[in-house]
UniProtKB/TrEMBL annotation:
NCBIfam families: mazG, PRK09562.1. SUPFAM superfamilies: all-alpha NTP pyrophosphatases. It comes from the Bacteria. Keywords: Hydrolase. It is an enzyme of class 3 (hydrolase). This is Nucleoside triphosphate pyrophosphohydrolase. Residues 111-130 are annotated as: Disordered. Gene3D superfamilies: MazG-like. Residues 35-108, 170-230 form the NTP pyrophosphohydrolase MazG-like domain. The gene is mazG. One of its GO terms (molecular function) is nucleoside triphosphate diphosphatase activity. Its EC number is 3.6.1.9.
Length: 267
Protein backbone atom coordinates (compact mmCIF):
# COMPACT_ATOMS: atom_id res chain seq x y z
CA UNK A 1 0.00 0.00 0.00
CA UNK A 2 1.84 3.15 -1.17
CA UNK A 3 1.88 6.17 1.09
CA UNK A 4 -0.67 8.85 0.12
CA UNK A 5 0.90 11.52 -2.06
CA UNK A 6 -0.65 14.28 0.06
CA UNK A 7 0.68 12.88 3.34
CA UNK A 8 2.22 15.62 5.53
CA UNK A 9 6.00 15.37 5.80
CA UNK A 10 5.78 15.08 9.58
CA UNK A 11 3.23 14.17 12.22
CA UNK A 12 1.49 11.17 13.67
CA UNK A 13 -0.66 10.58 10.57
CA UNK A 14 2.50 9.90 8.56
CA UNK A 15 3.70 7.37 11.13
CA UNK A 16 0.30 5.64 11.23
CA UNK A 17 0.27 5.34 7.44
CA UNK A 18 3.80 3.90 7.42
CA UNK A 19 2.75 1.33 10.00
CA UNK A 20 -0.33 0.37 8.01
CA UNK A 21 1.84 -0.02 4.90
CA UNK A 22 4.27 -2.29 6.73
CA UNK A 23 1.40 -4.53 7.85
CA UNK A 24 -0.46 -4.57 4.53
CA UNK A 25 -1.07 -8.27 3.70
CA UNK A 26 -0.36 -7.80 -0.02
CA UNK A 27 2.44 -5.26 -0.25
CA UNK A 28 3.82 -4.97 3.27
CA UNK A 29 7.02 -6.23 4.90
CA UNK A 30 6.91 -10.03 5.39
CA UNK A 31 8.55 -9.75 8.81
CA UNK A 32 6.12 -7.11 10.07
CA UNK A 33 3.13 -9.02 8.72
CA UNK A 34 4.13 -12.12 10.70
CA UNK A 35 4.34 -10.34 14.06
CA UNK A 36 1.75 -10.43 16.83
CA UNK A 37 1.37 -8.84 20.27
CA UNK A 38 3.48 -11.48 22.00
CA UNK A 39 6.35 -11.29 19.52
CA UNK A 40 6.48 -7.48 19.61
CA UNK A 41 6.18 -7.13 23.40
CA UNK A 42 9.91 -7.86 24.04
CA UNK A 43 10.84 -5.07 21.63
CA UNK A 44 8.50 -2.72 23.48
CA UNK A 45 10.28 -3.47 26.75
CA UNK A 46 13.67 -3.08 25.09
CA UNK A 47 12.77 0.31 23.65
CA UNK A 48 11.49 1.53 27.03
CA UNK A 49 14.78 0.50 28.62
CA UNK A 50 16.72 2.30 25.88
CA UNK A 51 14.78 5.49 26.63
CA UNK A 52 15.65 5.12 30.31
CA UNK A 53 19.29 4.43 29.42
CA UNK A 54 19.55 7.58 27.29
CA UNK A 55 18.12 9.62 30.15
CA UNK A 56 20.47 7.98 32.65
CA UNK A 57 23.44 8.90 30.47
CA UNK A 58 21.98 12.34 29.73
CA UNK A 59 22.42 11.48 26.06
CA UNK A 60 19.91 14.08 24.92
CA UNK A 61 21.01 13.79 21.29
CA UNK A 62 19.97 10.11 21.40
CA UNK A 63 16.77 10.58 23.38
CA UNK A 64 14.78 11.94 20.43
CA UNK A 65 15.40 8.78 18.43
CA UNK A 66 14.75 6.49 21.39
CA UNK A 67 11.43 8.19 22.10
CA UNK A 68 10.52 7.77 18.44
CA UNK A 69 11.28 4.05 18.68
CA UNK A 70 9.08 3.79 21.77
CA UNK A 71 6.26 5.72 20.07
CA UNK A 72 6.52 3.32 17.14
CA UNK A 73 5.87 0.45 19.55
CA UNK A 74 2.59 2.06 20.65
CA UNK A 75 1.64 2.54 17.01
CA UNK A 76 2.60 -1.07 16.22
CA UNK A 77 0.37 -2.52 18.94
CA UNK A 78 -2.46 -0.17 18.00
CA UNK A 79 -2.27 -1.25 14.34
CA UNK A 80 -2.49 -4.93 15.29
CA UNK A 81 -5.37 -4.16 17.65
CA UNK A 82 -7.21 -2.30 14.89
CA UNK A 83 -6.73 -5.24 12.51
CA UNK A 84 -8.24 -7.55 15.14
CA UNK A 85 -11.13 -5.17 15.84
CA UNK A 86 -10.08 -4.42 19.43
CA UNK A 87 -9.36 -0.67 19.30
CA UNK A 88 -7.60 1.97 17.20
CA UNK A 89 -4.79 4.44 17.82
CA UNK A 90 -7.28 7.32 18.30
CA UNK A 91 -8.94 5.15 20.97
CA UNK A 92 -5.57 4.88 22.73
CA UNK A 93 -5.13 8.65 22.61
CA UNK A 94 -8.67 9.26 23.87
CA UNK A 95 -8.17 6.80 26.74
CA UNK A 96 -4.97 8.43 27.98
CA UNK A 97 -6.43 11.92 27.64
CA UNK A 98 -9.51 10.94 29.65
CA UNK A 99 -7.32 9.26 32.27
CA UNK A 100 -5.04 12.27 32.71
CA UNK A 101 -8.00 14.64 33.04
CA UNK A 102 -9.71 12.37 35.59
CA UNK A 103 -6.54 11.98 37.64
CA UNK A 104 -5.73 15.69 37.74
CA UNK A 105 -8.84 17.37 39.15
CA UNK A 106 -6.59 20.07 40.62
CA UNK A 107 -5.67 21.08 37.04
CA UNK A 108 -8.76 20.24 34.97
CA UNK A 109 -11.41 20.33 37.71
CA UNK A 110 -12.35 22.26 40.80
CA UNK A 111 -9.91 20.75 43.31
CA UNK A 112 -7.39 23.09 44.91
CA UNK A 113 -3.90 23.18 43.43
CA UNK A 114 -2.55 24.09 46.87
CA UNK A 115 -1.27 20.59 47.62
CA UNK A 116 2.14 19.09 48.19
CA UNK A 117 3.55 16.65 45.66
CA UNK A 118 3.10 13.95 48.32
CA UNK A 119 -0.61 14.72 48.70
CA UNK A 120 -1.05 14.76 44.93
CA UNK A 121 0.58 11.33 44.76
CA UNK A 122 -1.86 10.04 47.37
CA UNK A 123 -4.78 11.53 45.44
CA UNK A 124 -3.46 9.87 42.27
CA UNK A 125 -3.36 6.48 43.96
CA UNK A 126 -6.84 7.03 45.42
CA UNK A 127 -8.19 7.71 41.94
CA UNK A 128 -6.39 4.65 40.57
CA UNK A 129 -7.92 2.53 43.35
CA UNK A 130 -11.35 3.93 42.49
CA UNK A 131 -10.80 2.96 38.85
CA UNK A 132 -9.72 -0.54 39.87
CA UNK A 133 -12.99 -0.91 41.74
CA UNK A 134 -13.25 -4.28 43.48
CA UNK A 135 -9.85 -5.55 42.32
CA UNK A 136 -7.42 -6.74 44.98
CA UNK A 137 -4.85 -4.34 46.39
CA UNK A 138 -1.94 -5.72 44.38
CA UNK A 139 -3.81 -6.24 41.10
CA UNK A 140 -2.70 -4.28 38.06
CA UNK A 141 1.04 -4.23 38.78
CA UNK A 142 2.58 -5.65 35.61
CA UNK A 143 4.33 -8.97 36.09
CA UNK A 144 6.76 -8.12 33.27
CA UNK A 145 8.31 -5.18 35.14
CA UNK A 146 11.95 -5.55 36.21
CA UNK A 147 11.84 -7.55 39.42
CA UNK A 148 13.22 -4.82 41.70
CA UNK A 149 10.83 -2.24 40.26
CA UNK A 150 7.88 -4.59 40.71
CA UNK A 151 8.95 -5.36 44.29
CA UNK A 152 8.98 -1.63 45.01
CA UNK A 153 5.51 -1.15 43.52
CA UNK A 154 4.09 -4.14 45.40
CA UNK A 155 5.49 -2.83 48.68
CA UNK A 156 4.23 0.70 48.03
CA UNK A 157 0.77 -0.58 47.23
CA UNK A 158 0.66 -2.74 50.37
CA UNK A 159 1.99 0.12 52.49
CA UNK A 160 -0.90 2.35 51.43
CA UNK A 161 -3.33 0.00 53.17
CA UNK A 162 -1.17 -0.19 56.29
CA UNK A 163 0.87 -3.34 55.60
CA UNK A 164 4.35 -1.95 56.25
CA UNK A 165 7.06 -1.77 58.88
CA UNK A 166 6.83 1.56 60.71
CA UNK A 167 10.58 2.19 60.77
CA UNK A 168 13.75 1.46 58.84
CA UNK A 169 15.22 -0.29 61.90
CA UNK A 170 12.74 -3.14 61.53
CA UNK A 171 13.60 -3.51 57.85
CA UNK A 172 17.30 -3.70 58.75
CA UNK A 173 16.54 -6.36 61.37
CA UNK A 174 14.68 -8.37 58.73
CA UNK A 175 17.57 -7.94 56.31
CA UNK A 176 20.01 -9.35 58.88
CA UNK A 177 17.62 -12.22 59.56
CA UNK A 178 17.29 -13.12 55.87
CA UNK A 179 21.06 -12.86 55.30
CA UNK A 180 21.67 -15.11 58.29
CA UNK A 181 19.23 -17.70 56.92
CA UNK A 182 21.12 -17.80 53.64
CA UNK A 183 24.49 -18.03 55.39
CA UNK A 184 23.42 -20.79 57.78
CA UNK A 185 21.58 -22.93 55.24
CA UNK A 186 23.54 -22.42 52.02
CA UNK A 187 25.20 -25.84 52.27
CA UNK A 188 22.02 -27.74 53.15
CA UNK A 189 19.35 -26.13 50.99
CA UNK A 190 18.24 -27.47 47.63
CA UNK A 191 18.74 -25.17 44.67
CA UNK A 192 15.03 -24.32 44.68
CA UNK A 193 15.11 -23.50 48.40
CA UNK A 194 18.26 -21.42 48.00
CA UNK A 195 16.63 -19.50 45.15
CA UNK A 196 13.67 -18.75 47.40
CA UNK A 197 15.91 -17.52 50.21
CA UNK A 198 17.88 -15.27 47.86
CA UNK A 199 14.59 -13.94 46.54
CA UNK A 200 13.47 -13.11 50.08
CA UNK A 201 16.77 -11.32 50.70
CA UNK A 202 16.43 -9.24 47.53
CA UNK A 203 12.82 -8.40 48.37
CA UNK A 204 13.88 -7.04 51.77
CA UNK A 205 16.69 -5.08 50.08
CA UNK A 206 14.07 -3.44 47.85
CA UNK A 207 12.03 -2.67 50.96
CA UNK A 208 15.04 -1.09 52.65
CA UNK A 209 15.63 1.07 49.58
CA UNK A 210 11.97 2.13 49.63
CA UNK A 211 12.16 3.16 53.30
CA UNK A 212 15.30 5.16 52.54
CA UNK A 213 13.58 6.75 49.50
CA UNK A 214 16.05 5.16 47.07
CA UNK A 215 14.95 3.67 43.75
CA UNK A 216 16.51 0.17 43.92
CA UNK A 217 16.45 -0.26 40.15
CA UNK A 218 18.29 3.03 39.65
CA UNK A 219 20.72 2.16 42.43
CA UNK A 220 21.54 -1.19 40.87
CA UNK A 221 21.91 0.35 37.41
CA UNK A 222 24.40 2.83 38.89
CA UNK A 223 26.27 -0.02 40.59
CA UNK A 224 26.37 -1.94 37.30
CA UNK A 225 27.74 1.13 35.53
CA UNK A 226 30.37 1.63 38.23
CA UNK A 227 31.46 -2.02 38.01
CA UNK A 228 31.67 -1.81 34.22
CA UNK A 229 33.69 1.40 34.38
CA UNK A 230 36.16 0.10 36.95
CA UNK A 231 36.62 -3.27 35.29
CA UNK A 232 37.35 -1.48 32.02
CA UNK A 233 40.20 0.32 33.81
CA UNK A 234 41.53 -3.03 35.01
CA UNK A 235 41.55 -4.25 31.40
CA UNK A 236 43.26 -1.04 30.27
CA UNK A 237 46.08 -1.41 32.79
CA UNK A 238 46.52 -5.10 32.04
CA UNK A 239 46.66 -4.33 28.33
CA UNK A 240 49.44 -1.80 28.99
CA UNK A 241 51.37 -4.69 30.52
CA UNK A 242 50.62 -6.89 27.51
CA UNK A 243 48.12 -9.01 29.41
CA UNK A 244 44.42 -9.89 29.33
CA UNK A 245 42.25 -10.66 32.37
CA UNK A 246 42.62 -14.39 31.65
CA UNK A 247 46.39 -13.98 32.02
CA UNK A 248 46.03 -12.31 35.41
CA UNK A 249 44.90 -13.57 38.81
CA UNK A 250 42.49 -12.37 41.49
CA UNK A 251 45.18 -10.72 43.63
CA UNK A 252 46.47 -8.61 40.75
CA UNK A 253 43.01 -7.65 39.50
CA UNK A 254 41.85 -6.83 43.03
CA UNK A 255 44.80 -4.48 43.45
CA UNK A 256 43.96 -2.82 40.14
CA UNK A 257 40.32 -2.56 41.24
CA UNK A 258 41.43 -0.64 44.33
CA UNK A 259 43.57 1.55 42.10
CA UNK A 260 40.52 2.29 39.92
CA UNK A 261 38.49 3.19 43.02
CA UNK A 262 41.21 5.53 44.23
CA UNK A 263 41.45 7.09 40.78
CA UNK A 264 37.72 7.87 40.76
CA UNK A 265 37.75 9.33 44.26
CA UNK A 266 40.68 11.58 43.35
CA UNK A 267 38.72 13.24 40.53
Amino acid sequence: MPLPSDLPPTGIDRLLSIMAALRDPRTGCPWDIEQDFASIAPYTLEEAHEVADAIERQAWHELKGELGDLLFQAVYHSQMAAEAGHFTFPDVVTAICDKMIARHPHVFGTDSRDKTAEQQTKDWETQKARERGSLRTLDGIAASLPALTRALKLQNRAARVGFDWPSTDQVLDKLVEEAREVTEARDTLSQAELTEEIGDLLFVMANLARHLKVDPEAALRAANAKFTRRFARIEDWLAEAGKAPADSDLAEMDALWNRAKAEEKAR
